[in-house]
């Protein structure tokens, strides 16, 4: 029997991408809302409660509303928004976070899908903290370069309407240093304070790379790039969607420049180390619509349902 799946927000950027993943899967029966009724609370409530798994691909406020509409104890919600990522009664939807996370995702009916920048940041930093190489009180900073689809329908429309080239230069944002992903970045890395985080959006549809610079002299004494690499490699051994590259791997570069789009159309996260004996940077790269959003949501659904985690997804 097929699992009934509903996507609330089916006409948004993440919702459309989810449909691409789910259409054609024989083990899924997609419940579709009539487009004209897609914001009708009664119809949304009916479908949410009819679903085994309902994805919320909505702004935060609409996600909170949708969650409150569900009274069927068997409906599992996977929320793509920021609304519940650090809520104690929701499980953080990052299977690779730590031992036991898959079991928590399997057991919970409330799964908060990760933020795109946050998932890259956490996957780069957490193993280094856990291994004791990066002190939890290190003053971490990070930058992110992201495609404009990260901003949803309205940002996509702005870029596509930009005939005069006004948006062709990269644009740093969240300069108040309070990006909405900071709480999850801090909580799930174990850092004692939030990182200084500056994202930049560029004139390309999708692809994201978070860069975390590290002063080697401020890591655990004796830490070299080999130790950083080993910590990442050992932590992610056997993970189907995480690829840890050897230090200075030229595969990350295109003519000497980092290729931010190199994980696109996959559910893969690529982890790179570049630098020298004194300074290193860890770069985590993913497709913001794939492992950063819809791909991660499908992976969480697979884990929750107890089916092969890679079903319908590709590591590239
Ligand atoms: N884009 C990305 O890379 C990522 C996005 N996210 C998060 O996922 C969520 C969805 O983002 P995204 O797809 O980019 O956003 P979009 O703006 O592209 O889509 C949001 C959708 O929600 C619909 N919607 C808004 N309010 C309601 C409501 N009250 N009831 C029903 N539907 C409603 C909109 O309807 P309408 O069609 O009328 O506009 C739209 O289709 C957000 O919380 C976002 O932060 C998370 C990770 C990455
Ligand atoms: C380019 C752009 O604006 N990107 C979005 C990130 C998209 C995302 O991951 O948002 P969620 O927290 O809802 O998951 C931003 O930085 O706010």
From TrEMBL:
Any one Gene Ontology BP term: L-arginine biosynthetic process
Single annotated GO MF: N-acetyl-gamma-glutamyl-phosphate reductase activity
Gene Ontology CC terms, in alphabetical order: cytoplasm
Active-site residues (renumbered): 116
Coiled-coil features, chain-numbered ranges: none
Zinc-finger is among the record's keywords: no
Ranges where the Semialdehyde dehydrogenase NAD-binding domain occurs: 4-105
EC number: 1.2.1.38
SMART domains in the cross-refs: Semialdhyde_dh (SM00859)
Lineage: superkingdom: Bacteria
Catalytic activity: N-acetyl-L-glutamate 5-semialdehyde + phosphate + NADP(+) = N-acetyl-L-glutamyl 5-phosphate + NADPH + H(+)
EC main group: oxidoreductase
Pathway where this protein functions: Amino-acid biosynthesis; L-arginine biosynthesis; N(2)-acetyl-L-ornithine from L-glutamate: step 3/4
CDD domains: AGPR_2_C (cd23935), AGPR_2_N (cd17896)
Pfam family, one: Semialdhyde_dh
Subcellular location: Cytoplasm
Keyword terms of this UniProt record: Amino-acid biosynthesis, Arginine biosynthesis, Cytoplasm, NADP, Oxidoreductase
UniProt main location, coarse: cytoplasm
Biological function: Catalyzes the NADPH-dependent reduction of N-acetyl-5-glutamyl phosphate to yield N-acetyl-L-glutamate 5-semialdehyde.
Family (UniProt): Belongs to the NAGSA dehydrogenase family. Type 2 subfamily.
HAMAP family: ArgC_type2
The protein's name: N-acetyl-gamma-glutamyl-phosphate reductase
Gene source species: Alcanivorax dieselolei (strain DSM 16502 / CGMCC 1.3690 / MCCC 1A00001 / B-5)
């Amino acid at each position: 029997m097929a699992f009934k799946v509903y996507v609330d927000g089916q006409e948004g950027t993440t919702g459309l991408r989810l449909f691409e993943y789910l259409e054609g899967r024989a083990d899924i029966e997609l419940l579709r809302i009539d487009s004209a009724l897609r914001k009708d609370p009664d119809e949304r409530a009916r479908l949410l409660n009819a679903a085994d798994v309902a994805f919320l691909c909505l702004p935060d406020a609409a996600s909170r509303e949708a969650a409150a509409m569900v009274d069927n104890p068997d409906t599992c919600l996977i929320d793509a928004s920021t609304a519940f990522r650090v809520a104690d009664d929701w499980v953080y939807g990052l299977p690779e976070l730590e031992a036991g996370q898959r079991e928590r995702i399997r057991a919970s009916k409330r799964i908060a899908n990760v933020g795109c920048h946050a998932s890259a940041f956490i996957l780069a930093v957490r193993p280094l903290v856990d291994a004791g190489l990066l002190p939890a009180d290190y003053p971490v900073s990070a930058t992110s370069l992201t495609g404009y689809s990260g901003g949803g329908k309205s940002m996509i429309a702005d870029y596509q309407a930009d005939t005069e080239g006004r948006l062709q230069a990269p644009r740093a944002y969240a300069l108040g240093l309070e990006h909405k992903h900071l709480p999850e970045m801090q909580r799930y890395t174990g850092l004692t304070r939030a990182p200084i985080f500056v994202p930049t959006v560029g004139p390309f549809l999708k692809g994201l790379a978070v860069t975390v610079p590290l002063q080697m002299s401020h890591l655990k004494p004796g830490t070299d790039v080999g130790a950083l690499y080993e910590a990442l490699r050992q932590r992610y051994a056997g993970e189907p969607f995480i690829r840890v590259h050897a230090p200075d791997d030229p595969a990350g570069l295109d003519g000497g420049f980092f290729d931010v789009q190199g994980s696109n159309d996959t559910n893969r996260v690529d982890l790179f180390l570049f630098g020298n004996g004194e300074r290193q940077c860890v770069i985590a790269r993913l497709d913001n619509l794939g492992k950063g959003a819809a791909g991660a949501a499908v992976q969480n659904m697979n884990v929750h349902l107890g089916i092969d985690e890679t079903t319908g997804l590709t590591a590239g």
